[in-house]
Amino acid sequence: MTAGRAAIVGAGPAGSLLAILLARRGHRVDVYDLRPDPRDGKGDGEGRSINLGLSARGIRALRRVGLWETLRDRLVPMRGRVVHRPDGSAVFQAYGTDPAQILYSVDRDELTTLLVERAAAHEGVRHVFGVRCTGLDRENAGLTLADTVTGQARGVRADFVVGADGAFSAVRAAMQRGLPTDHRQDFLEWGYKELTIPAAPGGGPRVPLEALHVWPGDGALIVAHPNVDASLTATLFLPRTGVPGAPGFDDLTGGRDAVRFLGRVFPGFADLVPDLAAQYAAGPVGTLVTIRTSRWRHAGRVVLVGDAAHAVYPFYGQGMNAALEDCLVLDDCLARHPGDRAAAFGAYQRLRRPHTDILADLSERNFADLRDGTRSPLRLARRQADLALNRIFPTLWRPLYTMVSHTDMPYGEALRRARHQDRVLRWSGAALAAGVALAAVKLTSARRTSP
Fold it and tell me: Is the dihedral of CA 14, 17, 19, 25 positive or negative?
């Protein structure tokens, strides 16, 4: 199979990374996106770009295309998370026992721009911005594109099409139309708003910068990522519709109401955002969705990557990392099946889908952990036990979070090992309890028979 023409719909991190990888294989690549060119510095203009946490999987992807060292100056290391308690105190929780086990906060627009620039540096890559995908001919790898300003439509042809156009993918919908497909779309009852914690008047950060900051509360959650300019991008999560005593976004319609509520639930947070009322009133409410779908490709003509194949809630920090890892796996499958693109796409789906389904479950579970577990003494004790055992047996015992975030171990394998460790811990606890009980019985018997 000679290198052909690829049409990628979506110029986000996954689409742009895949454009680079395909261009390296000799493909001519056309990348289409409905947003403006990020190199113009306008961003997506939607106010819905949760900052990204780069972990081992994303770093490995960037290393493969030689971008990791270039990006490092634009990142803020997060060595752990700072949990802000309701009494106003804060506690630091390291991500792991190894100082190298850290995450990196990156602005989504910064990362996208860098990837687009690197892709455009390849002679065979062409970008077209401001066009919307309105149709797909899956049998012939044809696309119908409409200009977002004029509405004028045109058709394009390629050898294969990649859907990298997000959770509500037009490519996925058209590819699956009329075919037997299992598809599940779960919306979280919570939404989110982005708020900015600006740098202090002197230019420094208002809170320690090299950490993810978490404010867990009753019926609310705030997570803040640091930025290189000493500001933090905070994401406020609330139910869309609240209950008495715990309002949601539908109830907090004005900025002043929000300030009073946040001041009550998160003492001290309002002091970090001088224009909190104005920011709250101006920011849109974002939607959180999980996508599980059984059909990721059609023959050798269409394939999905990233959120188009497996959108997940953002609470494990793996959505973007998993999307970049998709590109590496797909690239490897194309290398293993150089004469059969259909076989390559099929192998890619078989390798990735079981693990991204598990990631969706982990991300949903971690929402409860961030919201409630960071305040739970029992959860904290279990976390400390995991870390202590990891220090003693660094190669035999690794916390689930470590395996997911600081290795490229498949998600399913990480969960399997974590469950085995849970069983060992339960057996050990049961054995210890039984031993203590037996010793107590023997001691009591000895006392009764002693003269």
Answer: negative
User: Does residue 398 sit in the same domain as residue 353?
Assistant: no
Q: State the CATH number of the domain containing residue 318.
A: 3.50.50.60
* Chain position carrying tokens 């001919």: 137
Q: What is the mean pLDDT of each run of 10 residues along the chain (451 residues)?
A: 85 98 97 95 57 94 95 93 90 87 93 96 96 97 97 97 97 97 95 96 94 92 95 96 88 90 92 95 94 97 98 94 98 95 98 97 89 64 77 85 93 93 77 47 52 51
Residues 262 and 449: their CA atoms lie apart, in Å, by: 65
- 3-class secondary-structure state, position 300: coil
Pairing mode, strands 28-33 and 125-129:
parallel
Contact 104, 95 (CB under 8 A): no
| Neighbouring residues of 247: CB distance < 8 A, sequence distance ≥ 6 | 219, 238, 257, 261
DSSP 144-168: EEEETTT--EEEEE-SEEEE-S-TT
Q: Residues 421, 321: one domain? A: no
Residue 381 domain boundaries? 375-434
Helix (H) or strand (E) holding 232: strand 232-239
Report which of 133, 195, 214, 201 is spatially closest to residue 169, judged by C-alpha positions: 133
End of a domain among 347, 367, 387?
367
Please tell me whether the overall predicted TM-score, pTM, comes out greater than 0.85 for this model. Answer: yes
Any alpha helices (H) in 267-376, and if so which ranges? 269-272, 276-282, 307-310, 319-336, 341-371
User: Running DSSP on this structure, what letter comes out for residue 42?
Assistant: -
Q: Measured between alpha carbons, how far is 250 from 235 in angstroms, rounded to an integer?
A: 17
Domain count along the chain: 2
